[in-house]
Amino acid sequence: MSTNSTDPLIGRLIDGRYQVRSRIARGGMATVYLATDLRLERRVAIKVMHGHLADDSQYKARFIQEARSAARLAHPNVVNVYDQGQDGDTAYLVMEYLPGITLRDLLQEHKVLTTVQAMDIMEAILSGLAAAHKNGIVHRDLKPENVLLADDGRIKIGDFGLARAASANTATGNALLGTIAYLSPELVTRGVADTRSDIYAVGIMLYEMLAGEQPFKGEQAFQIAHQHANDTVPMPSTKNPRVPAELDELVLWATARDPDQRPRDAKTMLDQLHETEAALRHEDTSTAATAVQRTVVMPSAVASASSTAETQIFAAKARHRTGPILTESAATLSNKAERRRSKGFWLFGLVILLAALAGGTGWYFGSGPGARIGIPDLAGQSPTDATAALVKLGLTVDPTVVPTDSPTVPKDAVVNTDPPAGSLIVRDTVVKLLVSTGPKLLDLPDLRGLPEQQAIDRIKTLDFSYDGTKSTQQFDGKAPLGTVIAALGADGTDLSTVKQYGQQQKISLVISAGPLPAVAGLSFDEASKLLQASGLTATKGVDAFSADVPKDAVIGIETPKDKPIRPNDTVRLTMSRGPEQVAVPDVVGAPWSEASKTLTNAGFTIKFKNDGVSQNISGLPGARVRATNPPAATIVDKGSTVTVTLGIN
């Protein structure tokens, strides 16, 4: 538990009932405090929405939704919500206080959990989630941060801020508000969520507990989202060989890309988890002689028309290793022995003859002239080292190498041999070295302006390799949203003007995030909200004079000269100081030819007095300034109009 003595809420009495004691945690939407309910004399956790979000109807609705969703649930594996209200500008939610840690804290400390630990935590999560699904609630933001592990052993699901009715499965604008690492493919691609979307998140958490890491990684959120939408979650046993096959199958079932192939709700998956636990206990207690090999068949998430049970059960078929036991009488065994003895004498002679032949043959093909030598795999070695290795084996190397293009072997290194690696040849056979000239150069079209997926398909079709881990987004006012701004090689080289590129070499893309939001003329708070919706954080930059933008409004975004602006960046806003104030120059008595230059250079607009004389004599050599309006030394906005009266000296 962390505290902050400078937090203005600590020590405050909220709604005349809840005495705030200390701060527990802070999130993107709210801060959670430890408080005392003075009316019931018990400790509670009070969740207070951040002040800058209090006026946002969308966030407020989410806050109220959390209270309503949790209030509909009464389950030992769901955090209880006691109260919800508003005290002045403070919107709050009162929940039961659970001293302990989150599942995220546990994973950061231990990384990989045992099979038993993972199944125990899964049982609690699925039990609470089953209660939510039964009440028609989809959580939509399941992740280790929202699973609480109390000091007394209780495990509970919290944070129903994104929950929706299971029948209202269109997520609209909030589709990606959940944590990207746990979003189901349908949420990423279509913004649609139902109970099976929660199951996908549970499957990702089970993978993380067993494998020690998340299945998909990337530098940018959209890269991870792309993998969720297009790639299959691997089995956790590929990272942790101790994971049993039954849990591998459970992870693959829960994380199927097609929602119809997943458990239809948490109750279905919970029932299977219980069967898996029973099967693993049975295997642990079985002896090697009676052990059964189980083939687990995943059911479809959609029950058949004739199904009457709520759960769907894994089909398991056992393959018993049995063999016929042959029994023979003593007489039969005796007769067989006699026959073997009668044949023994002539077989002995035959064995002696064969041994002699084998010895001679073995010498001839082993160390004699007919000896066969296996050519080793020399790929990646220099021609000098490869030649030395072959000569040492008793082979002859052709000094003339064979140039060979290769997408994987560096230039001037050995790709293969002729005869190829693994071949058995006799001594003194001449071997040729196939040396890499680098990847074969293929025509590369200009990918700029193409939609992202079309460019990716083009890269793969042309036999190049797409590197999604290095692809990035950046804001661009000229390139439409989602189109390619540039294609980059493996070393970061801009390939936009390159005509040819190496076969199977990596290409990453720079994708347009669209134009920067128009913030000129807005207040800083208005501009910040608009930029935040585009994934940017705003901070105040320099102040500048502006005749067009009101004082304290935003003039524009400071664009770095050597670095593009990308999603998740922090941008600096130039703020207006209003028009620049200057003094009217003293030009009275000066010749008009000099006075006009002085006024113009100072940024003023000149106007002649409407007396029918001043403008007419302005071109005469003796014209001088008699007066100005405003008078000299008057402080006015730069660029203001000065009216001059001329006369002849």
TrEMBL record:
Family annotation (InterPro entries): Kinase-like_dom_sf (IPR011009), PASTA_dom (IPR005543), Prot_kinase_dom (IPR000719), Ser/Thr_kinase_AS (IPR008271)
Recorded GO MF terms: ATP binding; protein serine/threonine kinase activity
Segments forming domain PASTA: 370-437, 514-577, 578-648
PROSITE patterns per record: PASTA, PROTEIN_KINASE_DOM, PROTEIN_KINASE_ST
Segment forming the signal sequence: none
UniProt xrefs under CDD domains: PASTA_pknB (cd06577), STKc_PknB_like (cd14014)
Location of the Protein kinase domain: 18-277
The reaction(s) this protein catalyses: L-threonyl-[protein] + ATP = O-phospho-L-threonyl-[protein] + ADP + H(+); L-seryl-[protein] + ATP = O-phospho-L-seryl-[protein] + ADP + H(+)
SUPFAM superfamilies (alphabetical): Protein kinase-like (PK-like)
Biological processes per GO annotation: negative regulation of fatty acid biosynthetic process
Regions that span the bilayer: 345-366
Keywords assigned by UniProt, alphabetized: ATP-binding, Kinase, Membrane, Nucleotide-binding, Serine/threonine-protein kinase, Transferase, Transmembrane, Transmembrane helix
Pfam families for the chain: PASTA, Pkinase
Superkingdom, taxonomy of origin: Bacteria
Enzyme Commission code: 2.7.11.1
PANTHER family: MITOGEN-ACTIVATED PROTEIN KINASE KINASE KINASE 20-RELATED, SERINE_THREONINE-PROTEIN KINASE YBDM-RELATED
Name listed for the protein in its UniProt record: non-specific serine/threonine protein kinase
Originating organism: Lacisediminihabitans profunda
